[in-house]
C-alpha cells in the first residue's frame, strides 16, 4: 500500500473517522482505524462497535493494500505537518514520510479489524437536511446522558401517516418536533444514539441519504457514511405526558425572561439552578435564595390564570429559550406539581415539557 496526500487536507477529511475511534478499548485494535487503498481510491474506516464512520478521501494511489494504524499517533503527527506526505507499507510497518523526516508505525492486518458493513441497511431514501437539522437540534439536547436509562439515552423518531416526530427526554424535560412530510418508507419507530446525530449535524450540508433495519441506522452525507446501532428498548408513551389544558398562561419576551433567569439564578447553589416563579394578581416575579443570599426580580409580561407559586430549573428554561425562534415564548402551567408546557408561537412544530421542582420551604 502506498499513497500521497496533503497532510492538512487528509487530517481534516479524517476528522469524523478519528473522532469515532475510542482512546481506550478492551481490544487494542479498536484504537486504530482502517485504511484501504484500491482502484477506487482511498477509504478510511473507524468504529467503536456501536458507531462507525467510513470516509472516501482524495489521494494519489501508487500501490493498493490495506492495514489499520493508531488513530492517536496519526492525529498527533499530522497536525504538526503542512505539506505533501506519503504513506507506504513496508513489511509490518507503515512509514509516513515527508520532506525532512519520516515516522514508522506498527500496524494491524485488515482481517484483525472489525468487518466493514457489507451493505447499506434497509430501504434508502433522501431527506432534506434542513428538516433533519431542525428536528435534531430542537430535541437532541433533551436526551438523557445516563446510560442506565437506555430508552431515554437516544432520540426517538417515529414516522407514519405523513408525519415525522422526533422526541428527546431525560425523564424531567422533553423536546418534541413534529413536521408533516412524506417519506417513501413504511411507518417506523426507532431510537437513535445522539453521537451519530451530532455527526449528522456537523457534516450535513446538502440532502442526506437515510436507511435503517432492525438493528442499525445509516446516514450518507457526501463522502461520509455513518452507521450506528439502534437502541433496543421501548420508548415511554411521550404523548401521555404532554399537558392538554394547562389553564395558567404566561406570555413573555424570551430575552426578558432569559436575562432575569441568568441574574436571579446566581443565588441558586444546585446544578439545576432552582428558582421560584410567583404569578398572579399584580405580581409576576422570579426569586431564588440560598446561604449565599437571595435575589428577586419582577417580570414584564402577560399572565392569565390563578395565583401560582412554582419551582423551576433555570438551567432547563434557559436551554429551551435558546431554541425559541420568535421574540415571544408561551409557558402554560397547571398547578405547582404538574408538567409545564412551553410553546414557540413562531414555530408550531416544536413543544417542550418540563417537570417542576418541589422547593423546600
From TrEMBL:
Keyword Chaperone: no
GO biological process: DNA strand elongation involved in DNA replication
Domain DNA polymerase III beta sliding clamp N-terminal: 1-117
Coiled-coil segments: none
Boundaries of every DNA polymerase III beta sliding clamp central domain copy: 127-237
Main localisation: cytoplasm
Location in the cell: Cytoplasm
Subunit structure: Forms a ring-shaped head-to-tail homodimer around DNA.
Name of the protein described by the UniProt record: Beta sliding clamp
Species for this entry: candidate division WOR-3 bacterium
Amino acid at each position: 500500500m502506498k499513497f500521497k496526500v496533503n497532510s492538512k487536507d487528509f487530517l481534516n477529511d479524517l476528522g469524523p473517522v478519528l473522532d469515532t475511534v475510542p482512546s481506550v478499548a478492551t481490544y487494542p485494535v479498536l484504537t486504530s482505524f482502517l485504511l484501504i487503498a484500491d482502484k477506487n481510491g482511498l477509504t478510511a474506516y473507524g468504529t467503536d462497535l456501536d458507531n462507525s464512520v467510513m470516509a472516501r478521501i482524495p489521494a494519489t494511489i501508487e500501490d493498493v493494500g490495506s492495514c489499520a494504524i493508531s488513530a492517536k499517533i496519526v492525529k498527533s503527527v499530522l497536525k504538526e505537518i503542512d505539506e505533501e506526505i506519503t504513506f507506504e507499507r513496508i513489511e509490518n510497518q507503515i512509514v509516513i514520510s515527508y520532506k525532512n523526516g519520516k515516522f514508522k508505525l506498527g500496524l494491524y492486518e485488515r482481517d484483525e479489524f472489525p468487518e466493514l458493513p457489507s451493505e447499506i441497511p434497509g430501504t434508502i431514501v433522501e431527506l432534506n437536511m434542513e428538516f433533519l437539522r431542525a428536528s435534531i437540534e430542537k430535541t437532541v439536547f433533551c436526551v438523557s446522558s445516563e446510560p442506565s436509562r437506555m430508552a431515554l439515552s437516544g432520540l426517538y423518531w417515529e414516522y407514519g401517516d405523513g408525519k415525522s416526530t422526533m422526541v428527546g427526554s431525560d425523564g424531567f424535560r422533553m423536546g418534541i418536533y413534529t413536521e408533516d412530510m412524506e417519506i417513501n418508507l413504511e411507518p417506523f419507530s426507532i431510537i437513535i444514539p445522539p453521537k451519530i446525530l451530532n455527526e449528522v449535524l456537523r457534516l450535513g450540508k446538502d440532502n442526506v441519504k437515510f436507511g435503517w433495519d432492525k438493528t442499525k441506522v445509516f446516514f450518507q452525507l457526501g463522502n461520509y457514511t455513518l452507521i450506528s446501532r439502534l437502541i433496543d428498548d421501548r420508548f415511554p408513551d411521550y404523548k401521555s405526558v404532554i399537558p392538554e389544558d394547562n389553564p395558567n398562561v404566561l406570555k413573555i419576551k424570551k430575552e426578558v425572561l432569559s436575562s432575569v433567569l441568568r441574574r436571579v439564578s446566581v443565588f441558586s447553589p444546585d446544578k439545576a439552578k432552582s428558582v421560584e416563579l410567583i404569578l398572579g394578581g399584580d405580581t409576576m416575579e422570579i426569586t431564588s435564595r440560598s446561604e449565599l443570599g437571595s435575589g428577586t426580580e419582577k417580570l414584564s409580561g402577560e399572565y392569565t390564570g390563578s395565583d401560582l407559586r412554582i419551582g423551576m430549573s433555570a438551567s432547563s428554561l434557559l436551554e429551551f429559550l435558546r431554541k425559541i425562534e420568535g421574540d415571544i415564548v408561551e409557558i402554560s402551567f397547571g398547578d405547582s406539581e404538574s408538567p409545564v408546557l412551553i410553546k414557540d408561537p413562531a414555530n408550531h412544530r416544536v413543544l417542550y415539557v418540563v417537570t417542576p421542582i418541589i422547593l423546600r420551604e
